[in-house]
Each structure stands twice: as structure tokens, then as C-alpha cells.
């Protein structure tokens, strides 16, 4: 009895939907490119031209900027950014951001170059990633940092990649899988401490930036948005030391950041000693750099003084926030 009643209702719903169909068909007349052929699962920068893409996005499309630099297309309204710290001598691109508009159009920015994509979509990417500096901020820093030694560089040597954390706090978890040594987490925690400290040997610049270590995790989802901020180890080409994956929402907030260090690098130095052995890559230095990305610092390429310079050599201790890194964190938070 009850069943029959339900069946009767279901039939009624089907009839009602059928009656609506002509109206629906009329309304969806022209989503132009969206009705076109599906995109390849891998897009090249040249496919994101001034006019935008002319295909319909596949479910898991990535934009391949270089053989070792790919950005997974994010959910609509957000920007995904990948930043690579390379070993010395590499000239490949070190950062790329992809914005996906609600209509499926994409914009792409490689390093600091002008964004590719339609005027509207590239403009939206630039707006989301723009961070206005408070008036007078750099003036204050100039006087605070004036006495720093030459190797600290200049207080103007910083750049932002876009987006800030709500409450100035970056919460993260650690996945120890394939870590090179049992003290790796300790080294990474020092990196987060050094990037959020108010002062360094290069001066003082107050920052509200805080990192919040929330323990270990077994998540393993680098490059994929899963609402968990995972720091850990992944396998990259030997010329890459670390990678940061960031997602920024339409309001300019950082909503997820994953950081992966290269588990294929066989000569990590994970110790605390300030004297990094020759031929070894200092994990604390790399972690300080990646944590800088985690908070929103971009690569600074015009001078090799800042921690945020996009390459690092062996035997180098670069754990000290330089003048530009201090100012960048102070202005950002
Ligand atoms: Zn980097």
C-alpha cells in the first residue's frame, strides 16, 4: 500500500521534470567553450593564451609548466601555486600559479611574469594574489634594519606569492614516511621557528606569523587539495630540494599548504650544527625557505642574499632570515 503510493509520487516527479525540459534547454544556450571538446588531462602554457582555453576541463587536469613543474587545476574560484627550491645551476621556472574561474576558464602565472589567460581571468588571478602593503611599512623597516651587515642584503628584497593565513597562523601536520633521518622533524620545526621569529642576526621586525604544529599524520596528498596541511617527503628529480603547494581562496586567504622535501636527495644534513658539512644540503635552511612559502613569501630572484632565493647549494647554512625576509614577514603579518 505504502509502496504503491510512493511509486505514484515518483511517476509524478518524472512527469513534472519532463514538462520542464524545454525551458532548461533554452536557458543553457551558449556556454561557448564549455560545450566544446574536453581538454587533454595535461595543458601546456601555450594552451592558456590571451583568449583563454577553448576546451572543457577534464576532471583532473594539470598544467605542465616544465617537465618537473606541474600545477593541478584547483576548484573554481581558487588559485593553486607550486614553488620549487632547486639546487644551484638550475634555470628552469621555479613557481607557477593557476586560477580557475567559475566558468571553467584558466589563468596561469609563471614566476613573476605577466599572467596568461583571458583579460577577465588573468585579472582575477592578479587580484586574488595581490597583497597591498600598509602605507609606511617599508619606511619603518629601513631604520630598524639599517645597521645589518652586508650579507643581510636590503630590506626591500622580498616578494609575495599571494594570500595570508586567517589569524596569522599556519597549522600543519607531519608525515614521516621516507624521511632521511629520525631528526628530520626537529630540523623542519627549526625552519618554521626561524621564519616566524621576530628577529635574526640581520635585525628585528615584529611579525604576528605563527606556525602551529599539530602532530603526525599518515596523509600523503601533495599537490592535491584535501583540506589538510601536510609537511613531509616525496620523490622529485634530483635538482629539486623541496616544493610548496598553496591554495588561496577568492578572498585572498590561504586555505591549504602542503610542503614536500625530496626523499631522493641522498645527501641531506639534518643536524642542528651551524656548520653544514661540505657536499650536504642543510634541511633546516630548506625548511626555513619552504616555511616562508607556507606563509606567502615568493621567490626573490634579484639578489641571492634572501632565504627566499630560488636555489641553494651544498655546504650552505642559510637559516638566518635576511633583511628582505624579515621585512617580508613583517609586512605580511
Ligand atoms: Zn622556493
CATH superfamily of the largest domain: Collagenase (Catalytic Domain)
Count of distinct strands: 16
Number of domains: 2
Number of helices: 6
Assess the beta-strand content as a share of residues: 15-25%
What's this, in brief?
The protein folds into 2 domains: 32-128, no CATH class; 135-332, Collagenase (Catalytic Domain) (3-Layer(aba) Sandwich). It contains 6 helices and 16 strands. The protein has helices at residues 2-27, 119-129, 137-144, 184-196, 283-295, 323-332, and strands at residues 42-43, 62-66, 69-72, 79-87, 95-100, 106-110, 169-174, 199-200, 203-204, 210-216, 230-234, 240-248, 254-262, 268-269, 281-282, 311-312.
Structure in words:
The strands form four sheets. Strands 4, 5, 6, 7, 10, 11, 12, 13 and 16 form a nine-stranded mixed β-sheet that branches. Strand 5 (95-100) and strand 6 form a beta hairpin. It is globular and about 60 Å long. The protein is built from six helices and 16 strands. It is an alpha/beta fold. Bound molecules: zinc ion. Residues 83, 85, 289, 293, 299, 310 line the site of zinc ion. Zinc ion is lined by residues 83, 85, 289, 293, 299, 310.
Amino acid at each position: 500500500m505504502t509502496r504503491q503510493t510512493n511509486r505514484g509520487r515518483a511517476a509524478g516527479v518524472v512527469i513534472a521534470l519532463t514538462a520542464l525540459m524545454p525551458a532548461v534547454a533554452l536557458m543553457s544556450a551558449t556556454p561557448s567553450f564549455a560545450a566544446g571538446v574536453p581538454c587533454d588531462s595535461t595543458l601546456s602554457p601555450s594552451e592558456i593564451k590571451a583568449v583563454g582555453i577553448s576546451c572543457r576541463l577534464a576532471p583532473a587536469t594539470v598544467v605542465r609548466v616544465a617537465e618537473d613543474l606541474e600545477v593541478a587545476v584547483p576548484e573554481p574560484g581558487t588559485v593553486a601555486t607550486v614553488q620549487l627550491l632547486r639546487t644551484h645551476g638550475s634555470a628552469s621556472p621555479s613557481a607557477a600559479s593557476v586560477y580557475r574561474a567559475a566558468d571553467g576558464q584558466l589563468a596561469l602565472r609563471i614566476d613573476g611574469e605577466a599572467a596568461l589567460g583571458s583579460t577577465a581571468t588573468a585579472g582575477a588571478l592578479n587580484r586574488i594574489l595581490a597583497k597591498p602593503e600598509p602605507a609606511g611599512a617599508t619606511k619603518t623597516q629601513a631604520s630598524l634594519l639599517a645597521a645589518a651587515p652586508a650579507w643581510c642584503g636590503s630590506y626591500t628584497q622580498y616578494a609575495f606569492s599571494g594570500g595570508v593565513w586567517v589569524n596569522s597562523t599556519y597549522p600543519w601536520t607531519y608525515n614521516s614516511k621516507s624521511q632521511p633521518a629520525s631528526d628530520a622533524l626537529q630540523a623542519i620545526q627549526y625552519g618554521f621557528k626561524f621564519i616566524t621569529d621576530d628577529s635574526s642576526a640581520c635585525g628585528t621586525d615584529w611579525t604576528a606569523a605563527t606556525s602551529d604544529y599539530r602532530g603526525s599524520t599518515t596523509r600523503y596528498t601533495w599537490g592535491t587539495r584535501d583540506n589538510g596541511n601536510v609537511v613531509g617527503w616525496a620523490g622529485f628529480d634530483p635538482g629539486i630540494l623541496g616544493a610548496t603547494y598553496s591554495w588561496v581562496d577568492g578572498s585572498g586567504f590561504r586555505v591549504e599548504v602542503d610542503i614536500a622535501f625530496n626523499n631522493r636527495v641522498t645527501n641531506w644534513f639534518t643536524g642542528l650544527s651551524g656548520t653544514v658539512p661540505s657536499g650536504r644540503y642543510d634541511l633546516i635552511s630548506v625548511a626555513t625557505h619552504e616555511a616562508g612559502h607556507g606563509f606567502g613569501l615568493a621567490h626573490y630572484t634579484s639578489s641571492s642574499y634572501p632565504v627566499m632565493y630560488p636555489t641553494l647549494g651544498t655546504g650552505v647554512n642559510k637559516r638566518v632570515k635576511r633583511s628582505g625576509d624579515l621585512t617580508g614577514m613583517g609586512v605580511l603579518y
